[in-house]
Amino acid sequence: MAQHTTAPATAMLGYRLKRAASALRSRMDEGLRPHGLTVPQYATLELLDAQPGLSNAELARGAFVTRQSMNVVLRGLADGGLVRRAEVSEHGRALPTHLTDDGRRRLEAARDVVFALDRQMTAAVPGRRLADLLTDLDAMAAELGR
To answer: pTM of the full predicted structure?
Structure first.
């Protein structure tokens, strides 16, 4: 049987990471709302800007949602004229997705909000510790298999 400390769960690293992620998500929701975007939609636009033609499955992994949820995200983005999906796949069943010009403009405007939040969050970490913190976060994700 695993040994448990007597410290409260709120003192644990995982709780604190979740608390920070929740605060970021809440602020992103607020900031993206005037741009007509949700956090998964914004993440999808960023992924498509960096790698045009990604499939639904690739986008779902990158945006941290299920494939079923990504279908809903893509439908909303397509209905809004922000992305276009191929009607037919060139290879297999995956339908590549691309940003439209409107999608690229919306992404540019929304980036201001997200990048400002990132700068605000980063300012809370002393500069000399930031590189180590980022390395540690990457190591934690790798340790847990992500």
So the answer is: 0.86
